[in-house]
Amino acid sequence: MEIVTRNNFESWMQKLMERLDRQDELLLSLQPSGKAPDPMERIRMFDNQDLCMLLQISKRTLQRYRSIGALPYKTLGKKTYYSEEDVLTFLSGHVKDFKKEDIAFYKARIHNFFQK
Questions:
Q1: Residue 103: helix, strand or coil by DSSP?
Q2: Is the separation of the CB atoms in 71 and 90 below 8 Å?
Q3: CA atoms of 6 and 20, how far apart (whole Å)
Q4: DSSP-assigned letters across all residues of 14-80
Q5: 75 φ, ψ (degrees, to nearest 5)
Q6: CB burial class (10 A; 0-12, 13-18, 19+) of residue 107?
Q7: Any idea what DSSP says for residue 83?
Q8: Could you tell me which CATH number the domain at 43-113 has?
Q9: pTM across the whole model
Q10: What is the pLDDT of residues 11-33, one digit of tens each?
Q11: Is the pLDDT at 116 greater than 60, yes or no?
Q12: Torsion of the alpha carbons at 30, 31, 33 and 35, rounded to the nearest 10
């Protein structure tokens, strides 16, 4: 391992930039269209607060849905996240918990949430 000093800082930085450029080119070559991935095409996730606001339910109700296994979730650290697909599936399968006419409203709110 080389110690970076003021004298060799520029050459070290140049090597680092070249390496990052090569990594960038490699990642772009792995993409089928040759363009960088769009972050909006990734899986869309809600946290507890977002989902409570969108569905107009309490945190306790959300916890109950998780506990009975009705709503799939993922945890990262101490935060809980829900994928958009899982939430839409949950809404479709639990119509009795929500008014039927409100299902379309909630689905529209979920889709519009990411349109900002």
A1: helix
A2: yes
A3: 21
A4: HHHHHHHHHHHHHHHHHSSSSSPPPGGGS--EEEHHHHHHHHT--HHHHHHHHHTTSS--EEETTEE
A5: -115, 140
A6: middle
A7: E
A8: 1.10.10
A9: 0.52
A10: 877 887 888 888 877 777 666 66
A11: no
A12: -110
- Residue 62 pLDDT class (50, 70, 90 cuts): very high
Domain ranges of the chain: 43-113
List the one residue out of 52, 60, 46, 65 whose CA is nearest residue 113.
Answer: 46
Structure letter (DSSP) for residue 8: T
Per the listing, tokens 């958009």 go with 84
Q: What is the CA radius of gyration of the chain?
A: 22
- β-pairing, 74-76 vs 45-47, is unpaired
Strand partners, 76: 79
β-strand partners of 75: 80
